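#help-structures
NK: newbie question, is this the right format to request a structure? protein is SDR family NAD(P)-dependent oxidoreductase
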Amino acid sequence: MLDLAGASAVVTGGASGLGEATARRLAAGGATVVVADKNEERGAQVAADIKGIFVATDVTDEAQVQAAVDAAAAAAPLRALVACAGTGYAARTVGRDGTPHPLAPFEFIVKLNLIGTFNAVRIAAAAMAKNDPQNDNERGAIVCTASVAAFDGQIGQAAYGASKAAVAGMTLPIARDLSAVGVRVNTIAPGTMDTALFDMAPQAVKDTLGAAVLFPKRMGVPEEFASLAYELLTNSYMNAEVIRLDGGIRFQPK
């Protein structure tokens, strides 16, 4: 069991949604949490609420991610990273008007969701490798965020599905790499989650999305993601897995 009490953790995308819920869960478990996010106002508020640290962070920027990791390591041994920063985009490969998918947003989504995740993983893991080991020579643990779109990508999700499939695909090789330094890596692939993305959506829209879930017939909530993330971080025998957190949903083409 990885003990996070008295340790530090970094949560990218920690100012809202899945990241915020995870930051709060880690703080409740005794960790000092660095909320790494571009949203300075909301990020600072979350950090204040949980007696953590806010560091303005664009996960695609090496120096900013390094600053977040350094802030965590200065507070306590860095033993946990949860990489939640990311976003979506929808466009068909060839639009209804015959135009091709614009390349710039495809590149942006891959850079944020995939390269941003790897950037955080590599820098955090390098800091964890310097820790004194706990039981089983364990020095830390990492949780990445994919999506069920990695496996069931819908019409218009070429960019998003590709970025998240790559996060899922790099989980095993990174776990193999980091076994040498005593760091575990797992990935959660959420289904439809009731985050800020749906704040303005009518309840009828949420009900429709929930109806497609096998059981329970509702959208997931961030606290359920946070609960699984905490288990993956602390359960020392969980490694190199990609776990769907989706109520059994299987996306249809649209």
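mod (FA): yep, format's fine, and the tokens are attached above. Residues 8-245 form a domain with the Rossmann fold fold (CATH 3.40.50.720).
NK: thank you!
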